[in-house]
Amino acid sequence: MPLWTGRFKKSLDKKTNDFNSSIPFDCRMAQQDIRGSVAHATMLGKQGIIDKSESDKIVASLKEIAADLECGALEIDMTAEDIHTFVEGELTKRIGDSGKRLHTARSRNDQVALDLRLYLLDQCKVLEESVKSLIEVIVNKAEENYDAVMPGYTHLQRAQPVTFGHHLLAYANMLMRDLDRLYDCKKRMAVSPLGSGALAGTTYPLDREYVAELLGLNGVSDNSLDGVSDRDYALELLSTLSIIMVHLSRFAEEIIAWCSWEFKFIELDDAFSTGSSIMPQKKNPDIAELVRGKAGRVFGDLQTLLTVMKGIPLAYNKDMQEDKEAVFDALDTVIMCLDTFAPMLETATVNRENMRNAAAKGFINATDCADYLVYKGLPFRDAYKATGMLVATCIDKGLTLETLPISEYKAVCDLFDEDVYTAIDLDECVKKRTVKGGPSPECVLAEVKAMKTKMDNWNK
User: Fold this and answer.
1) What would the pLDDT profile of 204-241 be if each residue is shown by its tens digit?
2) CATH match of 362-458 with 1.10.10.10
3) Closest CA to 224 of 203, 196, 204
4) Most buried residue, 34, 125, 171, 410, by CB count within 10 Å?
5) For the whole model, what pTM was predicted?
6) Choosing from 37, 40, 155, 242, which is the catalytic residue?
7) One of 276, 277, 407, 440 is an active-site residue; which one?
8) Whether the Cβ atoms of residue 215 and residue 39 lie closer than 8 Å to each other
9) Which CATH number fits domain 14-104: 1.10.275.10, 1.10.150.130, 1.20.140.10, 3.40.50.740?
10) What is the largest CA-CA distance in the chain?
11) Phi and psi at residue 156, in whole multiples of 5°?
């Protein structure tokens, strides 16, 4: 039975009812709906808005309903209009007219706004753990490969030597910032809109702060219109989820490239690869490709809610029912991607030899060659030009800077001496990059240590 009967003389058309119903997706907020109702009923009894004995009766029955749903003794009626209708209907079925007093001083508008906030806060905890797990895998993998020399790239061209550990830690830093965004998002999410009513509050003497305290929230909304009609907390979360997927997609793209025969920097475990139905030699990085593809899905969820909200006048409009499927889908997708990505990376085999061989090509020590001349007193622009001439010579003769005779060096600049070969040695080039945040093994280990300290603090 809909909660809005009385004015209407006809039942809702069956197809229209199905179109209007939200229980197929808002049923996942059942526990949060009950938690909010328990807090609301407790406050109603405390304030004397309903009799304390009835308040206690409602709270006890709501907790029983929650337990029955949890253990499977009670199933949600999927013909109900929404989860709020189902819970209130089940409550009234169990305790009679007392159950009808629960909705005193409350609208579905502020009720659903509260439920969504509570649900997203709970899911953020799950999301945080998934992000942390991936960070831990990355940090451990970086520590294992702190000194594995590989080419760093710009424009997908070999640029300068780095270490694989350093490259991995770039993604750990991105995910750390994602965690910070989540924490920040939760501050604005943890606000109770209950008491806003349909849009104009209520004449009952509510204690809104008490309800917020019972629910573990930071405070209450300051404006009843804003309390029921905005979803910026959901948009903020969707934005954060989208940024996480940007980072995962970029990482996935590199893994896909690194697995190719053209790179062969890593090999994914068989448990995280698939084959071809026609080409027996294939080992495809499908999991990474799916992560890359699902990024677009999450971006679409953000765009969906932005579009829904952009033209809605105050206060509540039924359009806002579209908020849940978008944010639920994005959460489910991101958590699934994170929980699949972590073991995929953890079990991957790193081919240090191929990385080192790739680093030996492409003149990625050219900057170090120029810096050698700078340390000898030559202005950088002149050193840059001289090194460029040497690279051109190497290309013409099929040599590398390491194999180019010293006579060729001196022909370009007489400041060159035999010690140039030490200066341009790849391992030496990496070791010298000791500026904080650099790729040297020393810096990588320092960054790993700092990351692990942060991770230890997570568990305190």
Assistant:
1) 999 999 999 999 999 999 999 999 999 999 999 999 99
2) no
3) 196
4) 34
5) 0.92
6) 155
7) 276
8) yes
9) 1.10.275.10
10) 100
11) 60, 25
